[in-house]
Design a protein that fits this description.
CATH superfamily of one domain in chain B: NAD(P)-binding Rossmann-like Domain
Strand order of the largest sheet of chain A: 3-2-1-4-5-6
Distance between the termini of chain A: 27 Å
Strand content of chain A: 15-25%
Shape of chain B: globular
Order of helices and strands of chain B: EHEHEHEHEHEHH
Shape of chain A: elongated
Number of helices of chain A: 7
Helix content of chain B: 40-55%
Strand order of the largest sheet of chain B: 3-2-1-4-5-6
Number of helices of chain B: 7
Number of strands of chain A: 11
Number of strands of chain B: 6
Largest sheet of chain B: 6 strands, parallel
Radius of gyration of chain B: 16 Å
CATH topology of one domain in chain B: Rossmann fold
CATH topology of the largest domain in chain A: Rossmann fold
Oligomer: heterodimer
Largest interface: A-B, 18 and 17 residues
CATH architecture of one domain in chain B: 3-Layer(aba) Sandwich
Structural class of chain A: alpha/beta
CATH superfamily of the largest domain in chain A: NAD(P)-binding Rossmann-like Domain
CATH architecture of the largest domain in chain A: 3-Layer(aba) Sandwich
CATH class of the largest domain in chain A: Alpha Beta
Structural class of chain B: alpha/beta
Distance between the termini of chain B: 22 Å
Radius of gyration of chain A: 23 Å
Chain lengths: 229, 160
């Protein structure tokens, strides 16, 4: 794929690195010449100086043959215009826009840019694919009735350690979705036996999440430290 | 007429003052209070009926400035992209009958004009006008000046 990234801040930088590692063709456009100079030693010709909203610049980087344009500057209007121009003028099949101010997200949709990401954090988690441990993650993006993911690391003295899933007293509307054991992922059935050292990933309603944690690691067990996400 | 102007720089404030003097109801939006202060210094306190401090692509700010009843919306901030986005919001979201955007970049101005937006490219306009003045030529029409920088042949140009 040929991907054009506009904006070489943290998001654009990490995105470009990821795309290159995945062996896609990338061009990173950045307005600030000193920032480009900083990145040139790492990216070489991949990074270019220019205003990504200018048609000449878009032509120079071959916007017409791009499969995807990603606008990740710090300014929503700029991201919007980059995507609109790519869509209308250059017929790029996919445009993805970062939305800095979540309040602006409906504007993007109104103006025809539907693939929007309204949080830097979501982009990071997509890149790093880490799940936060010790706390519940509210996945409003799932557009289901509200569910919560609970992760728990089982210790030797955890009530659930050593027991089969079917023998654990789970509160009303919970399931155990996955178990991470060493480097494997297990999809548990009722007869799967949990072990100390397992990271258990459960799904619960907000009301039942504490009950689920209690059933797995015991009442009053301290939350494990958060991994950076 | 009820007019909402986005951007209280020289053009925005002067436009507001002219329309207000002619009896129209004008509100002006700008994100900096300093812009309103300067306008007041230059043009007096009544250069507009109402001033609203805020970001021009924010629906709440636009509503506060009366966009729902506006017959005209003019975007004249110093940022092309802000003007283009605000003009589209005024048209698509609030269905303001007459929407104008000042766009400095001739290519972007033409691209959006082709998509149906009324853009005024002051770069092309002034450059073309100055050329005629410098060369002693008779002045031409607005449309001809706006087309000064067009790279398309005449029959393919969008009319403003």
């Amino acid at each position: 794929m040929y991907v054009i990234v506009v904006g070489a801040g943290k998001v654009g930088y990490y995105l470009t690195r990821t795309l290159i590692a995945e062996e896609h063709e990338v061009t990173l456009i950045e307005k600030d010449a000193s920032r480009v100079a900083q990145l040139a030693s790492e990216f070489g010709e991949v990074v270019v100086v220019g205003d990504g909203c200018e048609v000449r610049v878009m032509e120079d980087v071959g916007m017409g043959r791009a499969d995807c344009v990603v606008a990740v500057t710090g300014h929503d209007e700029d991201n919007l215009i980059v995507c609109q121009m790519a869509q209308r003028h250059f017929r790029v099949p996919r445009q993805i826009a970062r939305v800095n101010n979540p309040k602006n997200e409906p504007i993007f949709h109104l103006l025809g840019i539907t693939e929007t990401v309204a949080s830097t954090r979501i982009i990071y988690s997509l890149i790093d694919q880490e799940v936060e441990t010790g706390e519940s993650l509210l996945l409003t993006a799932l557009k289901l009735r509200k569910i919560v993911i609970v992760t728990a690391d089982l210790a030797l003295d955890s009530p659930a350690a050593g027991h089969m899933v079917k023998d654990i007293h789970l509160p009303g509307e919970c399931i155990l979705a996955a178990i991470i054991r060493e480097d494997h992922i297990l999809l548990p059935s009722g007869t799967t036996r949990l072990e100390s050292g397992d990271t258990v990933i459960g799904v619960a309603t907000p009301q039942d999440q504490q009950g689920l944690r209690d059933a797995l690691v015991g009442v009053g067990a301290p939350s494990p430290p958060r991994r950076a996400g | 007429m009820r007019v909402v102007i986005l951007g209280c720089g020289r053009v925005g404030s002067t436009l507001a003052a002219i329309l207000t003097r002619e009896g129209h109801q004008v509100s002006v939006i700008d994100r900096d209070q300093a812009s309103f202060d300067k306008a007041t210094q230059r043009l007096g306190p009544d250069f507009a009926q109402e001033t609203v401090r805020g970001i021009g692509i924010d629906e709440d700010i636009l509503r506060q400035a009366g966009i729902e009843e506006a017959e005209v919306f003019v975007a004249v901030t110093s940022g092309d992209n802000t003007n283009i986005v605000a003009a589209q919001i005024a048209r698509k979201r609030f269905e303001v009958p007459k929407v104008l955007a000042r766009v400095y970049d001739p290519i972007r101005a033409e691209a959006y004009r082709e998509a149906g937006m009324k853009t005024i490219c002051t770069t092309a306009l002034v450059a073309g006008l100055l050329r005629d003045v410098v060369l002693g030529h008779p002045l031409r029409s607005l449309q001809e000046y706006l087309d000064t920088t067009s790279t398309k042949p005449p029959h393919e140009r969008a009319s403003g």
